[in-house]
Amino acid sequence: MTMRSVLAATTLTLVCAILPASADGWLEGHGDRWYAIHRDIYELENRIARLEADPRMDDGYRAPIIEAARREIRRLQATIAPAYWRWTDPCCYGRRPIHIR
After folding, report:
1. What pTM, to 2 d.p., does this model score?
2. How far is residue 82's CA from residue 88's CA, in Å, rounded to a whole number?
3. In the chain, what are the domain boundaries?
4. Pick from 21, 58, 60, 80: most CB atoms within 10 A?
């Protein structure tokens, strides 16, 4: 083995060891609370979908459950900040409209 291949293998090993550790910190930018709220919203939406998909269940029984779940989803969405996306390109709505004659 040459010195160059040993250096390349060492660098590759270090990069593979460091990247997952730095990715964890980068992904946790929102915090545990943000992920917990999104998980709860996901579970409520799945519950609504299961209730709406069951043809044997009476509408009078499932309607209040679905309404309460939707209220809870709206309440949870109000507790988290809206998404703020940083785009590298300007938004398409920022340019002048195209008129075709």
Report:
1. 0.54
2. 19
3. 1-28, 31-81
4. 80
